[in-house]
Amino acid sequence: MDDPGGDKPHITPPKTWTTGVPAVAHAMEYSLEQTSPRRTALTLLNINQTEGFDCPGCAWPDPAPGHRKRNEYCENGAKHINDEATSRRITPTFFEQYSISELAGKSDQWLNQQGRLTEPMVKHVGSDHYEPVTWNEALGLLAEELRRLDSPDEAIFYTSGRASNEAAFVLQLFARAFGTNNLPDCSNMCHESSGAALKETLGVGKGDVSLRDIHHSDLVFLVGQNPGSNHPRMLTALEQTKRNGGRIVAVNPLPEAGLIRFKYPQKARGLIGRGTRIADQFLHIRVGGDLALFQALNLLLLEAEDARPGTVLDHEFIENQTSGFTEFAAHIRQLSWKDVHTATGLTRAEIEKLRDVVLGSERIIVCWAMGLTQHKHAVPTIREIVNFLLLRGNIGTPRAGACPVRGHSNVQGDRTMGIWEKMPREFMDALGREFSFTPPAEHGWDTVDSIRAMLDGRAKIFLGLAGNFVRATPDSRITESAMRRCRLTAHISTKLNRSHTVCGEIALILPTLGRSEKDRQAGGEQFVTVEDSMSQVHASHGRLEPASRMLLSEVAILSQLARHTLGDKVDVPWDGFETDYHLIRQRIARVVPGFENFNERVVRPGGFGLPNPVNEGVFPTPSGKALFTTNEFQMPQVPDGHLLLQTMRSHDQWNTIPYTLDDRYRGIHGSRRIVLVNPADIRALGLTDGAQVDLIGVWHDGVERRADGFRLVSYPTARGCAAAYYPETNVLVPLDSVAEISNTPTSKGVVIRLEPSPLQAAAPRASA
Ligand SMILES: Nc1nc2c(c(=O)[nH]1)N[C@H]1C(S)=C(S)[C@@H](COP(=O)(O)OP(=O)(O)OC[C@H]3O[C@@H](n4cnc5c(=O)[nH]c(N)nc54)[C@H](O)[C@@H]3O)O[C@H]1N2
Ligand SMILES: Nc1nc2c(c(=O)[nH]1)N[C@H]1C(S)=C(S)[C@@H](COP(=O)(O)OP(=O)(O)OC[C@H]3O[C@@H](n4cnc5c(=O)[nH]c(N)nc54)[C@H](O)[C@@H]3O)O[C@H]1N2
Ligand code: SF4
Ligand SMILES: [Mo]
After folding, report:
1. How many Å lie between the centroid of ligand 1 and the Cα of residue 138?
2. Is residue 765 part of a domain?
């Protein structure tokens, strides 16, 4: 793939602080490159305002209505919104000019930079070009192919977390009325491990912490998370925590800028001076060492209790509200400090210091993201964090709890709406009752299983609601060949991406409105709803003129597709849904618990919070108690001469889409084919800083996985570890390397070796 300008990286020392004036300037620069000053101003004035649209960036919550600022967004939110609001357009002439094979040779960045998709397009069997098609023809064709399948289970309906609640509800209803639970989503690659661990131990697969809890907590852990780039406004909340006297501990193999110091751009204090120091303690852990760390911490707490009985553990809570403590404690007491040191790279003294911080804190919150969820032992790691929180009664009480920080702005809402290949029985029964049909009983395929099914011909049609499936998924080459084996691939998208260029025999581009745009239907202007990382549900009103008059909303596309495919086979008012989204919300209110009087409550400024029984001290587990679990000690196994690679985001990208080739806070400029390695490891491997290397994935299936032409950058990452950007390195993540239980690809635990690159700098890249 072309890598524009990727050959001349410029490396500067990593930053030790985030945000402030440069961040605002960078946001404006990118926005003005994409669109006019007027449109930029309009988008920025409407982000995260009660009458405006929800930021399409991450799922970090907004402050309560009376507490919002005029500019309630971060640098990256501004970039994400203006990437959507761009004035650039892709018209049918573009697809005449470029064949699909040519487009498949372009970089992710180039494809995104071409602008908004404006008209439905089709690629017919045998053709290498997309050509214009009417909506009726496009949806008619897709419906006909769906009806021709031998079984509804030969179809896959993927969702990425930007889709609204309304679109998600309609999609899952359509898929189930059609007859399948094949509803994989980006969550399968994201927080699936969090959901699995929390559901098992606490009975609810979501976090139990509010913004207010964060502000007033005594101690907040940030584990496996880079908030300075990926949840920037979280730093504002953490600054508040610190002002209220709380402390912060960061656990990360990289000393990320946002974990160290933060300058707030909208206050004088952020513009001058040194800003707020964020982390009081930074634990420079090895990749994959977090299970060992929390087991060690739990052991130290048990020993502190032995030394001063009755002063450390919350016995009343453990006795009345939990089960499994005795087995857990017996197991933890066998922990070996040698193993802990090998797994974490931390000294006992560092962990003892952490214990002292914990002992000095009454109420504790643990926040985490992809650094924990994308490991083979992700679920046990998060279960061990739950053990840690339970020991001192830090669950189900204010200012404390578990906080999986979600990625996509509505990824949590999509799940609540039923986007899941294995929704629980109660949901399926309620759905069936409401619409008088019997939803399929068998679980569907998640993302990894969907790829396997496409590979061996069990799946024939792929429809994506948002997202970029072939770049988000592991083992890029294998996944692309899986997609190419399909009879039909179709994508409901705002922007062009690589998934549109990796086609089945027939392919469709179904262009749609973005969240920033006015959504006019026969029943008047519509709004949609979303749920943030802290279970707050609120409305999002588009404010811009649509990018093209030919665009349909996601709800309209899905409702029309359902009508084309199912006719009146099920008792669903698809037309009504398209005309007036209140009618969808009425049905959601009757199917999904917590959404009673949805239409009335969601129009209140700021919306409403979904109830979480854990906050009432109720644990809907089979035993009615919170569960201590016994987790076998595990750590990644890395042979000598190899490194453990984590694949991560740069500051200037949105998931699979790089906006620029810079990663400012880490001091990387002008290239993404960079691998960060500790200087001692570079020496030990006999390599030199700045060398060109290939990354070779090592897995036991004998397939060679290679990402070539990377520049080696000496960087303060933990020993034995390496870091490089996703999606360029997805080619190295084996499809079969997945987390236990959650089946999440192990994107943060890839065993690699480095080889000096045979092709030196200048040659164009051939690999994905
Ligand atoms: N600007 C921007 N914002 C985003 C996104 C984006 O692409 N761009 N994506 C959104 C989405 S969908 C998501 S899920 C979130 C992701 O948000 P993050 O989870 O912050 O994203 P990653 O870049 O994957 O970063 C993982 C962090 O975990 C650390 N890490 C890696 N391995 C380990 C480990 O084994 N242990 C520990 N303790 N730390 C580890 C890395 O050094 C890095 O700091 O961000 C959301 N927000
Ligand atoms: N190696 C590795 N792989 C990973 C990860 C990792 O850390 N490392 N992270 C994983 C994670 S956490 C996630 S969440 C996934 C992300 O995977 P996805 O969610 O599938 O990918 P995105 O890059 O967010 O999708 C971008 C595309 O969404 C479309 N889009 C944007 N806005 C809208 C909209 O409003 N409506 C519609 N219909 N389309 C829209 C655009 O066409 C855009 O090109 O990737 C996963 N893959
Ligand atoms: S923190 Fe996330 S949701 Fe908030 S403005 Fe930034 S990108 Fe948007
Ligand atoms: Mo994500």
Report:
1. 37
2. no
Distance 628 CA to ligand 4 centre (A): 27
Q: Are 225 and 371 in contact (CB under 8 A)?
A: yes
User: For residue 510, what are the β-bridge partners?
Assistant: 492
172 and 228 in a single domain? The answer is no
| Position 626 in a domain | no
Does the C-beta of 447 come closer than 6 Å to ligand 2? no
CA-to-CA dists, residue 414 to 445, 526, 527, 531, 537, angstroms: 17, 19, 16, 8, 12
The answer to whether the CB of 371 is under 6 A from ligand 1 is yes
Domain that holds residue 711: 643-756
| Ligand 2 in reach of 494 Cβ (< 6 A) | yes
Among protein residues, the one with the nearest Cα to ligand 2's atom 3 is 472
Same-domain check for residues 61 and 93: no
Q: In ligand 1, which atom is closest to the CA atom of 651?
A: 1
CA–CA separation, 722 and 254 (whole Å): 10
- Integer Cα distance of 240 and 215 in angstroms: 5
Residues 291, 335: Cα–Cα separation, whole Å: 12
The closest of 598, 588, 640, 603 to 753, measured between CA atoms, is 640
Q: Is residue 13 assigned to a domain?
A: no
Give DSSP secondary structure letters for 190-221.
TTHHHHHHHHHHHS-SS----HHHHHH-SEEE
The answer to whether 189 and 497 have CB atoms below 8 angstroms apart is no
273 pLDDT tier (thresholds 50, 70, 90) = very low
Last residue of a domain, one of 372, 404, 436: 404
As a whole number of angstroms, the distance between CA 131 and CA 123 comes to 6
Instruction: Name the least confident of 6-10, 35-39, 417-421, 618-622.
Output: 6-10
119 within 8 A of 513, measured Cβ to Cβ: no
What are the CA-CA distances from residue 384 to residues 197, 328, 375, 381, 527 (Å)? Answer: 9, 10, 14, 5, 41
Please choose, from the candidates 417, 526, 465, the residue with its C-alpha nearest in 3D space to the C-alpha of residue 163: 465
The helix/strand/coil state of 661 is coil
Give residue 693's pLDDT: 98
Whether 366 lines ligand 1, by a CB cut-off of 6 Å, is no
Rounded (5°) CA angle 621-624-628: 70
Render pLDDT for 436-485 as a digit per residue (tens, 0 to 9).
999 999 999 999 999 999 999 999 999 999 999 999 999 999 999 999 99
| Residue 127 zone, left/alpha/beta (φ > 0; ψ -120 to 50; rest) | beta
Asked if 486 and 516 sit in the same domain, the reply is yes
Please check whether residue 167 lies inside any domain of the structure: yes
